C-alpha cells in the first residue's frame, strides 16, 4: 500500500525525525531511541572503504606538555603535574570531500587529537571552528547528504545545501563562519583547533566541571580568499598535506597553545545560553581561556595507510577524569564514531598499532572477531589476561577487577523523556555578533561568497535564507538580498 509518511526500515511510521529522545529538555540522549540508532548505524555503512566524512586527511605524531596543573578540576593523569609530557597523534582533514578532493576547499577542517596517556587513549575529535551546523545528531546524516553529491546527477548540489540550511536556522552561526574569510584555512599549521563540544572534568572530590578545549596556533592564522583557493586547487590539490610534510622535514615543528574554558557544574542550570548547544560558544567574558599546555607536532607516520587511514579517533575514548556532557551532538557521536570504525576496519580495530594504547596495557575479555590475535607492539597482547578465560568475573585469569576508584560521579538528570525541539532557540544573536565584528571588506566578501551559490537555488529558499540573515543582522540580510536581486 502506498503512503507518503516517513517510516523506519521495518515500516513503522516515524513520529519525529528531527529531535532525539532525551532525558529532559537539556538532558542526555537515551539508548532506547532506536530510530536515532538506526539512522546513525545505516549512515555509517553507506560508503566503503573511505570515511563518509573527513575522508582526506593528514596525520602527525607529537607531544603535549602540561604547563598548568589541573588537579583541582580533573583526576586525568595527563592533566596533572606541571611539565608532564604525553605522546599524541593528530589527524587533520577536510570534511565533505572525497579522498581525491583538494585540500583548499571551502570546508571546515577536522582537528582530531589523541593523547596516549598512562590510563588509556583520550581522544578529542573536533574541528577548526568552535561551533557546528547542528545541535542534535539525529539530523547529521541528512545534513551530510546535502554536502555530498546529488544521488541522481552525482554533482554537488547547492539547492540541497541551502534548502537544508533554510529549514534549520540553528546552522546560521556556522554558516557565517564557513562563508567568511575564515572558511578556507591556508594549511593545517596556521589554523586554530577546538574540541567544539562541551566535555566534563571531575576531580578527586567528585566535583564535576564542564570544559571546552581550545588549541591556538602559534604559527598564527592564515586563510585563503576564494580566488586564491581556486588557483591553489588547480596547482596542488594536496597543498595542506605537502605543507605539513615539508614543515616536519625541515624541523619546523608546528605548535599550538592549549587552553580550556571551565564552568562549574551547577552554573550550567542557570547560564543564559544552553552550554551544551554545539551551535553556540561560551563568551570569554564569562568563562575566560585558561592556558594549560603546549601541543607540538614533530614526526610524520611511516605508513600512511596503516597509521592515518586506519587511525580510529572517537570521542568515546575517555580516560578517568574526562567524560561526556548532555551535548546532544556529542551523545550521538559517542556511538557513531566507534561504530563507523567497527564497520570500516573491523571489530578489533583498537589492536592496530596506531590505535592501541602506547602508554597503558589493555586488559579485557574480548577474543574473537576480525583481526583477533593482533599484537600491540607497545604493550603486547591485547587479549586480556594471560589465560583462556573470555568472561568475567572469573577465578582463573589472575584477577581483572573493576577500578571503582576511577568511577565518574553521578550526573544529575531532570525532566521527562521526550523529543524536545524548542530550547534556547536564539539561533541568530551569536551569528549577528560575529558579522558585526567583521570589517567592511570582510562583510562584503562574506555576502559575495554566500550569493555565489545561493543565487543557484530556487527563489523560495533564497527568501528563507535572506530572512535568516536579516534576523541575525539587518545589514547582513540587506546586502545578501541586494546581490541576489542584482
UniProtKB/TrEMBL annotation:
Domain Catalase core span(s) in chain numbering: 7-400
UniProt cross-references to PANTHER family, sorted A to Z: CATALASE (PTHR11465:SF9)
Entry keywords, A to Z: Heme, Hydrogen peroxide, Iron, Metal-binding, Oxidoreductase, Peroxidase
Q: What's the protein name? A: Catalase
Organism, by scientific name, is: Shewanella electrodiphila
**Per the record's keyword annotation, is Metal-binding included, yes or no?**
yes
Leading EC class: oxidoreductase
SMART domains to which the protein is assigned, alphabetical: Catalase
Name its co-factor(s): heme
The EC number(s) attached to this protein equal: 1.11.1.6
Membership in a protein family: Belongs to the catalase family.
Record carries keyword Lyase: no
Instruction: Identify the InterPro entries for this entry.
Output: Catalase, Catalase_3, Catalase_AS, Catalase_clade1/3, Catalase_core, Catalase_haem_BS, Catalase_immune_responsive, Catalase_sf
State the residue spans of region: Disordered.
1-20
Catalysed reaction equations from the record? 2 H2O2 = O2 + 2 H2O
Amino acid at each position: 500500500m502506498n503512503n507518503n509518511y516517513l517510516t523506519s526500515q521495518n515500516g513503522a511510521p516515524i513520529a519525529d525525525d528531527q529531535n532525539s529522545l532525551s532525558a529532559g529538555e537539556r538532558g542526555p540522549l537515551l539508548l532506547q531511541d532506536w530510530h536515532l540508532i538506526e539512522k546513525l548505524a545505516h549512515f555509517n555503512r553507506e560508503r566503503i572503504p573511505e570515511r563518509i566524512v573527513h575522508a582526506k586527511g593528514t596525520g602527525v605524531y607529537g607531544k603535549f606538555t602540561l604547563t598548568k596543573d589541573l588537579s583541582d578540576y580533573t583526576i586525568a593523569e595527563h592533566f596533572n603535574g606541571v611539565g608532564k609530557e604525553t605522546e599524541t597523534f593528530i589527524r587533520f582533514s577536510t570534511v565533505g570531500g572525497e579522498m581525491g578532493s583538494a585540500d583548499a576547499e571551502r570546508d571546515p577542517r577536522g582537528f582530531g587529537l589523541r593523547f596516549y596517556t598512562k590510563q588509556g587513549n583520550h581522544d578529542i575529535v573536533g574541528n577548526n571552528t568552535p561551533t557546528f551546523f547542528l545541535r542534535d545528531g539525529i539530523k547529521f546524516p541528512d545534513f551530510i547528504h546535502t554536502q555530498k553529491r546529488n544521488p541522481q546527477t552525482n554533482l554537488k548540489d547547492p539547492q540541497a545545501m541551502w534548502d537544508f540550511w533554510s529549514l534549520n536556522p540553528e546552522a546560521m552561526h556556522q554558516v557565517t563562519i564557513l562563508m567568511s574569510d575564515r572558511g578556507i584555512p591556508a594549511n593545517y599549521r596556521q589554523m586554530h583547533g577546538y574540541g567544539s563540544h562541551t566535555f566534563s572534568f571531575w576531580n578527586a572530590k567528585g566535583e564535576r566541571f564542564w570544559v571546552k578545549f581550545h588549541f591556538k596556533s602559534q604559527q598564527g592564522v592564515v586563510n585563503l580568499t576564494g580566488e586564491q583557493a581556486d588557483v591553489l586547487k588547480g596547482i596542488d590539490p594536496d597543498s595542506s598535506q605537502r605543507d605539513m610534510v615539508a614543515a616536519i622535514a625541515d624541523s619546523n615543528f608546528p605548535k599550538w597553545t592549549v587552553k580550556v574554558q571551565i564552568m562549574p557544574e551547577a552554573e550550567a542550570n542557570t547560564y543564559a545560553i544552553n552550554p551544551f548547544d554545539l551551535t553556540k560558544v561560551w563568551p570569554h567574558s564569562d568563562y575566560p581561556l585558561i592556558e594549560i599546555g603546549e601541543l607540538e607536532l614533530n614526526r610524520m607516520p611511516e605508513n600512511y595507510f596503516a597509521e592515518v587511514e586506519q587511525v580510529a579517533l572517537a570521542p568515546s575514548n575517555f580516560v578517568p577524569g574526562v567524560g561526556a556532557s548532555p551535548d546532544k551532538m556529542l551523545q550521538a557521536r559517542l556511538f557513531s564514531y566507534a561504530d563507523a570504525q567497527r564497520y570500516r576496519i573491523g571489530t578489533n580495530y583498537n589492536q592496530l598499532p596506531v590505535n592501541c594504547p602506547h602508554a597503558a596495557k589493555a586488559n579485557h575479555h574480548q577474543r574473537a572477531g576480525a583481526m583477533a590475535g593482533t599484537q600491540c607492539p607497545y604493550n603486547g597482547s591485547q587479549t586480556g589476561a594471560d589465560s583462556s578465560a573470555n568472561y568475567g568475573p572469573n577465578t582463573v585469569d589472575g584477577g581483572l577487577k573493576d577500578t571503582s576508584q576511577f568511577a565518574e560521579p553521578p550526573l544529575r538528570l531532570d525532566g521527562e523523556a521526550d523529543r524536545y525541539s524548542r530550547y534556547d532557540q536564539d539561533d541568530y544573536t551569536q551569528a549577528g555578533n560575529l558579522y558585526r565584528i567583521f570589517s567592511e571588506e570582510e562583510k562584503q566578501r562574506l555576502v559575495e561568497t554566500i550569493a555565489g551559490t545561493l543565487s543557484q537555488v530556487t527563489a523560495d529558499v533564497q527568501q528563507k535564507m535572506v530572512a535568516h540573515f536579516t534576523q541575525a543582522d539587518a545589514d547582513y540580510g540587506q546586502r545578501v538580498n541586494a546581490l541576489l536581486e542584482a
